[in-house]
Amino acid sequence: MRDTVVLHPGLGVGHLVPTLELARLFLRRGLAVTVLLVEPPGTPTPAAARAAVANNPSIHFHTLPLPATDAAAAAAEEVEANGVDGKSSPPARDPFAVLHRANAPLRDYLRSALPSVRALVLDMFCVDALDVAAGLGVPAYLFYTSGATSLAVSLHLPHAQAALGARSFGDVVVGDGAPLRFPGVPPFRPTELPTAALDRDNALYRKFLRAFERIPESRGILVNTFEWLEATAVAALRDGACVPGRPTPPVYCVGPLVSGAGEVNNSDKRHACLEWLDAQPEKSVVFLCFGSMGSFPKKQLEAIAIGLEASGQRFLWVVRNPRRDDGASLVANDHQQPEPDLDELLPEGFLERTGGRGLVVKSWAPQAEVLRHGATGAFVTHCGWNSTLEGVTAGVPLLCWPLYAEQRVNKVFIVEEARLGVEMAGYDGETAVAVEEVESKVRWVMGSEGGRALRERAEVAKEKAMEALEQGGTSHNDLLEFLRGFDGDASH
Ligand code: UDP
């Protein structure tokens, strides 16, 4: 039986995408890979999971059957989760609770597969499975699907929270207003933290803190980044500065793990928006897309539309239906939502007036391919880490419009440290990003000297990303180092 690595991703597309890329790295090194799937109803995972299974015949997928839970428990999870991010609703349920229930079937599965299992690689949301691994003597590692800067924040957060005593980060905002200083991270405002972290008593925040505290119990942390990109954070993590008083396990930067990098899609089933891009001039199109869950109220969609029209630039815009309540929520947590009715959502005549130079795509576009297309010139992004890396590896400058989770910290990194993007002012306001801001930032990135400088830096980052993955590159070496750790393990 071939040596097997078992990967246990969190819920949601943003976790599954890099996990599959990591799986491919292991396959290329001659290992067998099992990816575990958990399919609670109501999360965005099932459709993505079905596609993953269909498109990856070399990977063995195993679905963990969740023990039946009574309706009351499910409802309680729902309520508890109401505020992954305070303002915005989370993916359907509390991911920690759902994945905790997967521990019993995980134990059964690992027992049955034990002789061949060399390592269990856990998503941050599955960190409680460290106990399952320990019980069976299976070496367990963490795979952090966001970047090193976000990891530096996460690992330091329990310490920083403890230093606040009975106060919350929300009190710090109201208090002296001084920026937070975390090792390896540019100074940032407390409001750049996930919103739940502003209230020390928020139930989900307590779960995050517990998970962050447990990450260093793993044998090592694989991070979806490359050393050049996040050198400051990587150094702080490796120096142990982020987790005072405890050892930090080895940190392996094995990225960028980006969907389909280097692949050319020759299939006949090319998405229509790629055909449209074929007809546009080189680097002329602004691409707007807000992750697998981001959505806006109708008012904000209208402001984007008017701003795009006024900018005079070419654009490709993925529009998702607003949440049913059409309130201030930023996350569409229901993938069963109907397709958006563009005539109803966008200003009258907008589609006709911009038809020659703009394309609106309903709900979903093949983002990674769009970004790699030669006609794409800039990316308005919610700063999800996969999106960020897809932009970086395509050499495209970023206009940052963070929405939820760790995206504001990612934005701080992109703007302040990497200088690969600028922010869309107003993203964090109670109201919205204004028409004028959309118009002027889009014009700026496409036509100004500052935009040109950003594009040049983005090109350098793209080159550095490729170098990192090549033979002898830092990410290639970190992967080999990680695999050598298996051989040093006498028990397996
Ligand atoms: N994505 C896509 N098409 C879309 C929206 C999203 O292909 O219309 C992909 C995107 O390329 C990325 C993932 O979904 O790989 C989103 O992950 P990210 O970490 O950026 O954000 P999240 O969805 O987790 O907030």
Automatic annotation (TrEMBL):
Q: Which keywords label this protein?
A: Glycosyltransferase, Transferase
Q: What Pfam family is a match, any one? A: UDPGT
- Molecular function terms in GO for this entry? UDP-glucosyltransferase activity
- Give the matching Gene3D superfamilies: Glycogen Phosphorylase B (3.40.50.2000)
What Enzyme Commission number does this protein have?
2.4.1.-
- PANTHER family in the record, alphabetically? GLYCOSYLTRANSFERASE (PTHR48048:SF75)
- Protein name from the UniProt record: Glycosyltransferase
Q: Which organism is it from?
A: Urochloa decumbens
